[in-house]
């Protein structure tokens, strides 16, 4: 291994950029979709009707017990048996969403249980109820309280995206693997990948910090 | 001290009618067959030792707690149950609650909204009033409680007394038929109690209809038009403050006042 | 699926649990060392620890394992898959447990530590007898959670040829052309393992007296 290996890595810039963009795209799309779905699922988890909270609760607990790659395989091999043929990228994307929506719902539910009861009661006392109470009082408070945990989950989504290379999605690690196999420069390639993942995580941390500052002024 | 209000003895002036309210939490019976009436413009102070059920009674009035038995009528309209006997749904309950303004012991401001945001939230989104007018009125209310320069600040940066004054402005913004106060000064630093009581005194002088659960005896003596003393879930004595504080009629009331004077 | 198929997936679970457990057993003390180094505020070492933890925590399991298995031999270190997997998982466990230990140490009641200081206890004794037992107690739920996380990232070791539950299940499916039954069995095995860990974690969380118990 010598330093010129890194130069070779740098020369593969177009391929690496494509893989990098793919990874970031998966992160942004799957991250936002999971968060939105999590917001939809959380009131169901807190529902008073056993049918609803038990079934959603079961789904969330299942996702907590399953490794992400196994879920990917289940969807990858399972969908064709229902006659649905999707590209590998879409399969991986769906797996990310199904997996992480459950985690988001769990995170948001924990934040919900942390909110002082009086704050929500005041909403009811002033005539807010149902979806309006949720949208204007409960959800903003939950999202602000859960910001660090949501940021953490985004990091998890980024890391899980690397598993998708196993089903031939051209994300960053898979691209680097192809480069190192071609040019016999494994250390430089994978180390560069590690650094790139690290940089993306720093950006996630930066945005988490901004949202946390915004939330601090508005804390109970 | 307020003079007893002369009202004709008919229901037309009765803003609030509470009849036979009972409530248990598990095996603990907190309210036993409690009844009271409130006329427009009256200030009713609920007194009593801790755990006597006065806060629970207050919370039953706007149906934050559901009584096990009895009825609550606001301007002759029954809370919680429709004419036919069917339970009220959330939206009907919400509509009735919008006619009541409540001030909480721990302020219960919405921390993610600014001070002015807290005040205009319900008038705009529940009562569906015009945004501009609501904002104008909200600023006037803030001026009334002495906080006009805090309009765009967030509750986290206010002192306890300031938060409670915002809480009062928030309740007033609903233009409610009655105002409920749940131990409004109990969570405050002694230094800050005065500013809140001042605002409440001003409201009473303007003729607001108020139900106040409090431990502030001086305030009750000076501002209330009627005192109700509760103990163990029952109404023990009711009367005009002048008579209640100087010549209590029941033994329990005498004991209560003795304990209060000893502490003072 | 034949009995042998089931058995081959169960054998995969030995690899899953074995490698993850060893990774935790190696990584947790290492993480404690990193946390103590940062807590002791030694200048350059502190920043190096911070950098290590930050980078490894943001690194996907797959990428790290590939880096170690294919990259280290370039420096003359020849590794078999098991060794590479253990190194990767221990490094990850060390990085995550460092943060858990740090949280315990930071939340530790300073007064108790000062009391030990006032009684003339030397530094190592203060740490060993006063800080660690309580930090261990309050870290336990987080560490069990980390074990669960490691199990969930263990399928990554398949990319360097180790056969764990997911790879074993996928291989059975590829042979029998019926992918779903072995995957469901693999799912069942994971759930059993993780449910045991989650239950242990919940029990520990209930028993934990809270950080730096104020008595």
Can you walk me through this structure?
The complex is a heterotrimer of chains A (220), B (264) and C (215). Chain A is mainly alpha-helical and 220 residues long. Chain A has helices at residues 4-11, 13-45, 50-65, 68-81, 88-114, 117-125, 130-145, 147-161, 172-183, 186-217. Chain A has a single domain, classed as MetI-like (MetI-like fold, Orthogonal Bundle). In chain A, helix 4 (68-81) packs across helix 5, helix 8 runs antiparallel to helix 10 and helix 9 (172-183) packs antiparallel against helix 10. Chain B has a six-stranded mixed sheet, with helices on both faces. In chain B, helix 3 runs parallel beside helix 5 (160-172), helix 4 (131-144) crosses helix 5 (160-172) and helix 5 runs parallel beside helix 6. Chain B contains nine helices and ten strands. In chain C, helix 1 (3-39) packs antiparallel against helix 6 (123-153) and helix 5 (110-118) packs antiparallel against helix 6. Chain C has one domain (3-207): MetI-like (MetI-like fold). Chain C has 215 residues and is mainly α. Chain C has helices at residues 3-39, 43-57, 61-71, 81-106, 110-118, 123-153, 165-176, 180-207. The N and C termini of chain C lie far apart (58 Å). At the A-C interface, helix 3, helix 4, helix 8, helix 9 and helix 10 of A face helix 2, helix 3, helix 6, helix 7 and helix 8 of C.
Topology:
The complex is a heterotrimer of chains A (220), B (264) and C (215).
Chain A: H1 4-11, H2 13-45, H3 50-65, H4 68-81, H5 88-114, H6 117-125, H7 130-145, H8 147-161, H9 172-183, H10 186-217
Helix pairs in contact in A: 2-5, 2-8, 2-9, 3-5, 4-5, 5-7, 5-8, 8-10, 9-10
Chain B: E1 14-25, E2 28-39, E3 43-47, H1 54-61, E4 69-74, E5 77-78, H2 90-97, E6 100-103, H3 115-125, H4 131-144, H5 160-172, E7 178-182, H6 190-205, E8 210-213, H7 217-223, E9 226-231, E10 234-239, H8 241-246, H9 251-263
Parallel strand pairs in B: 3-8, 3-9, 6-7, 7-8
Antiparallel strand pairs in B: 1-2, 1-4, 4-5, 9-10
Chain C: H1 3-39, H2 43-57, H3 61-71, H4 81-106, H5 110-118, H6 123-153, H7 165-176, H8 180-207
Helix pairs in contact in C: 1-2, 1-4, 1-6, 1-7, 1-8, 2-4, 3-4, 4-6, 5-6, 6-8, 7-8
């Amino acid at each position: 291994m010598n330093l010129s290996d890194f130069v070779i890595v740098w020369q593969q810039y177009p391929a690496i950029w494509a893989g990098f963009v793919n990874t970031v795209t998966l992160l942004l799309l799957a991250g936002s979709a999971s968060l939105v779905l999590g917001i939809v699922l959380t009131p169901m988890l807190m529902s008073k009707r056993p049918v609803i909270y038990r079934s959603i609760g079961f789904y969330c607990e299942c996702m907590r017990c399953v490794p992400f790659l196994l879920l990917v395989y289940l969807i990858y091999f399972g969908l064709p048996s229902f006659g649905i043929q999707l590209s590998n990228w879409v399969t991986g994307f769906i797996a990310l969403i199904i997996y992480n929506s459950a985690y988001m719902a769990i995170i948001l539910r924990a934040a919900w249980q942390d909110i002082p009861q009086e704050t929500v009661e005041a909403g009811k006392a002033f005539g807010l109820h149902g979806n309006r109470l949720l949208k204007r009082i409960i959800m903003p408070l939950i999202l602000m309280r859960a910001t660090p945990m949501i940021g953490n989950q985004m990091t998890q989504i980024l890391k899980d995206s690397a598993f998708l290379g196993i089903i031939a999605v051209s994300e960053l690690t898979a691209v680097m693997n192809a480069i190192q196999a071609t040019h016999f420069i494994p250390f430089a390639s994978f180390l560069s990948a590690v650094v790139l993942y690290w940089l993306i995580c720093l950006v996630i941390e930066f945005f988490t910090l901004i949202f946390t500052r915004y939330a601090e002024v508005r804390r109970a | 001290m307020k003079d007893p209000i002369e009202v004709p003895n008919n229901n037309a002036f009765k803003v609030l009618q509470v009849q036979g309210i009972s409530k248990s939490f598990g095996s603990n019976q907190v309210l036993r067959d409690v009844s009271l009436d409130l006329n427009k413009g009256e200030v009713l102070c609920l007194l009593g030792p801790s755990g006597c059920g006065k806060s629970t009674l207050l919370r039953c009035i706007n149906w934050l707690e559901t009584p096990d038995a009895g009825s609550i009528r606001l301007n002759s309209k029954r809370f919680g149950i429709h004419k036919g006997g069917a339970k009220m749904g959330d939206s009907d309950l919400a509509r009735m609650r919008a006619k009541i303004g409540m001030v909480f012991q721990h302020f219960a401001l919405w921390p993610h909204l600014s001070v002015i945001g807290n005040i205009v939230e319900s008038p705009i989104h529940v009562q569906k009033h015009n945004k501009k007018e609501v904002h104008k009125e909200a600023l006037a209310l803030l001026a009334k409680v002495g906080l006009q320069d805090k309009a765009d600040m967030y509750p986290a940066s206010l002192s306890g007394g300031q938060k409670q004054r915002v809480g009062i402005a928030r309740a007033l913004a609903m233009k409610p038929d009655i105002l409920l106060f749940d131990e409004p000064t109990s969570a405050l630093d002694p230094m800050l109690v005065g500013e809140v009581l001042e605002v409440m005194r001003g409201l009473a002088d303007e003729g607001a209809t108020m139900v106040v659960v409090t431990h502030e005896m001086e305030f009750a003596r000076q501002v209330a038009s009627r005192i109700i003393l509760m103990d163990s879930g029952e109404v023990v004595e009711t009367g005009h403050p002048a008579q209640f504080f100087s010549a209590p009629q029941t033994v329990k009331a005498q004991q209560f006042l003795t304990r209060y004077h000893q502490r003072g | 699926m034949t009995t042998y198929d089931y058995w081959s997936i169960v054998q995969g679970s030995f690899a899953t649990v074995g490698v993850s457990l060893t990774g935790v057993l190696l990584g947790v003390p290492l993480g404690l060392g990193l946390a103590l180094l940062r807590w002791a505020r030694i200048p350059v070492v502190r920043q190096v620890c911070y950098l290590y933890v930050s980078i490894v925590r943001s690194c996907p399991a797959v990428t790290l394992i590939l880096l170690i298995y294919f990259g280290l031999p370039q420096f003359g270190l020849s590794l078999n898959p098991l060794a590479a997997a253990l190194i990767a998982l221990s490094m990850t466990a060390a990085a995550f447990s460092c943060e858990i230990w740090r949280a315990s140490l930071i939340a530790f009641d300073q007064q108790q530590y000062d009391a030990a200081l006032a009684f003339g206890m030397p530094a190592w004794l203060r740490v060993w007898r006063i800080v660690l037992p309580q930090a261990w107690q309050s870290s336990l739920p987080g560490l069990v959670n980390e074990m669960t996380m490691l199990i969930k990232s263990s399928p990554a070791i398949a990319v360097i040829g180790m056969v764990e539950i997911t790879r074993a299940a996928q291989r059975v499916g590829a042979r029998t052309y019926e992918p779903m039954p072995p995957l469901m069995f693999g799912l069942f095995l994971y759930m059993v393992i993780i449910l045991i860990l989650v239950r242990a974690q919940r029990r520990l969380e209930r028993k934990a007296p809270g950080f730096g118990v104020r008595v």
